[in-house]
Design brief:
Length: about 180
């Protein structure tokens, strides 16, 4: 008797759940896929990007899915979203999803800088001051820092006030990476 009742309850529960699953709520779908990371990635891979889709790359990076973040950021960058160019540079500089690549990092910084992005200008200026991923060019580096500061980027202004000493804006833990060894 006990087992018969349990079987009936389980069967009723399972059948009841499938019946509920088929019902459509007139209020809409709970947790629709439209704002999910997977939906943003699929939209990006189809070339359909906007600010919201491009920003999802940050979440992909933070959850450790660097391959997906790179795909999303690259698509956005190719369509002119400069913030994703600086993220591509960051990923290349820090070896997220691939080995570190200073030259590619500097190239992404350059693209963002030339597109007028103040963070890209600052980062490319630092690349030039340090000689990181590019041939060292102090004067050109200062000019990119100045462009960034003119747009109000406070860290660029701090670097100007500090005599363009890149160590002022570099965490001690990362300083080794930018030391010239020749």
């Amino acid at each position: 008797m006990k087992y018969g009742l349990v079987t009936i309850l389980l069967a009723t529960g399972i059948l009841g759940q499938s019946a509920l699953a088929e019902q459509v709520d007139s209020g809409g779908t709970l947790n629709p896929d439209e704002m999910s990371l997977s939906k943003s990635l699929s939209r990006a891979l189809e070339g359909d990007v906007d600010m919201v889709v491009c920003a999802q790359g940050y979440m992909l990076t933070k959850k450790g899915d660097h391959d997906a973040a790179r795909k999303l950021f690259r698509t956005c960058a190719e369509q002119g979203w400069t913030g994703t160019m600086t993220w591509m540079a960051y990923m290349e500089q820090n070896g997220l999803g691939k080995a570190e690549n200073p030259e590619t990092a500097a190239e992404w910084d350059r693209r963002a800088a030339e597109a007028g992005d103040p963070i890209g200008q600052f980062n490319y200026g630092l690349d030039l001051l340090r000689g990181y991923g590019v041939e060292q060019d102090i004067d050109l580096g200062k000019s990119f820092i100045d462009r960034s500061a003119e747009q109000g980027f406070e860290t660029a202004e701090e670097l100007q006030q500090g005599g363009y000493d890149w160590k002022l804006v570099t965490p001690d833990a990362d300083e080794w990476k930018f030391q010239r060894i020749y």
